[in-house]
């Protein structure tokens, strides 16, 4: 349970994996500074993972080189007024090590760039992002990047200063719903202008849809009372992932918040088909909240 009394809701610590790619450079120069300028977060922890494919006989030298590069990134952020509290270099499988450090440092969110379909080789960290999303026990903020052919550079589809203003919170109305709401309330409720609580009826027989929609509306109305911000509620019927993405576009949402199932090994897919599909198709930032550990 997340509890912070009467203190203003905000993110205390963010973990940002740096791979020194073009995407990292874009995030360092643009997204992260704008995100922190909104006042929504306090501390930044930087991490770089040296993949286990590195040659052992050059590991010590390479680790020192990486450490120096990461410290330079930290200094860039500090010059911007961002409170970088720690820089960490680890050796191992990137997704596993990132998830471990997130637990060890007790961060609130892991910030992960997520590659779009057109980024391809221009973004090394893309596969790592999907693996972190699957196994992390901390919320993961996935930010979609694409390759701009005209400018020959990466671009992202979010406004870092407004990302929490109009969240669409997708709820399954099971035991996970309460946890998702707790996370949202603690981390960024004070930055929300209007939230949309959204549920998709993709279950039951055809003649039960109307009844199921009504029941879902009643449950969302109860959940909405937990927020001090304005909340819209909406229930739709259809394919859950498609309805979530469409509703977010129609409402001009700035982020999609969605839960995922428990933790698993990288090769196992236990995130849930809806969350997996939303992550793959949506260009909006997605906050993925783990529901069971």
Oligomerization status of the protein chains: single chain
Low-confidence stretches: 1-6, 116-125, 263-271
Major sheet attributes: 11 strands, mixed
Q: Radius of gyration, rounded?
A: 19 Å
Number of strands: 11
How is this structure best described in words?
It is built from eight helices and eleven strands. It is 37% helix and 27% strand. With 293 residues, it is of the alpha/beta class. It has helices spanning 22-37, 59-79, 94-104, 126-135, 176-188, 209-224, 240-250, 273-281; strands spanning 11-17, 41-51, 83-92, 109-115, 140-148, 153-156, 167-170, 194-201, 230-237, 255-260, 286-290. It is elongated. The protein has two domains: 11-156, Rossmann fold (3-Layer(aba) Sandwich), CATH 3.40.50.620; 167-284, HUPs (Rossmann fold, 3-Layer(aba) Sandwich), CATH 3.40.50. Mean pLDDT is 85; it is low at 1-6, 116-125 and 263-271. Helix 3 packs across helix 4 (126-135) and helix 7 (240-250) crosses helix 8.
């Amino acid at each position: 349970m997340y509890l912070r009394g009467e203190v203003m809701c905000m993110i205390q610590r963010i973990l940002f994996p740096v791979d020194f790619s073009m995407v990292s450079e874009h995030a360092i120069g643009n997204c992260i500074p704008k995100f922190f300028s909104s006042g929504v977060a306090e501390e930044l922890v930087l991490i770089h993972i040296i993949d286990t494919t590195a040659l052992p006989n050059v590991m010590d030298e390479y680790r020192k080189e990486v450490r120096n590069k990461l410290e330079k990134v930290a200094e860039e952020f500090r010059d911007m007024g961002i409170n970088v509290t720690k820089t960490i270099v680890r050796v191992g499988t990137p997704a596993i090590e990132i998830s471990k450090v997130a637990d060890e440092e007790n961060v609130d969110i892991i910030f992960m760039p997520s590659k779009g379909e057109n980024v391809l080789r221009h973004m090394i960290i893309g596969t790592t992002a999907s693996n972190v999303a699957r196994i992390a026990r901390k919320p993961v903020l996935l930010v979609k990047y694409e390759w701009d052919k005209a400018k020959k550079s990466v671009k992202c589809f979010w406004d870092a200063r407004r990302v929490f203003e109009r969240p669409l919170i997708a709820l399954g109305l099971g035991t996970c719903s309460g946890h998702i709401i707790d996370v949202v309330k603690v981390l960024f409720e004070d930055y929300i202008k209007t939230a949309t609580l959204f549920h998709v009826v993709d279950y039951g027989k055809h003649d039960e849809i109307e009844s199921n929609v009504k029941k879902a509306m009643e449950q969302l109305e109860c959940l909405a009372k937990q927020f001090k911000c304005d909340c819209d509620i909406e229930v739709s019927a259809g394919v859950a992932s498609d309805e979530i993405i469409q509703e977010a576009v129609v409402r001009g949402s700035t982020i999609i918040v969605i839960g995922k199932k428990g933790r698993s090994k990288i090769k196992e897919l236990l995130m849930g088909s809806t969350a997996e599909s939303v992550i793959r198709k949506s260009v909006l930032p997605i906050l993925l909240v783990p529901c069971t550990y």
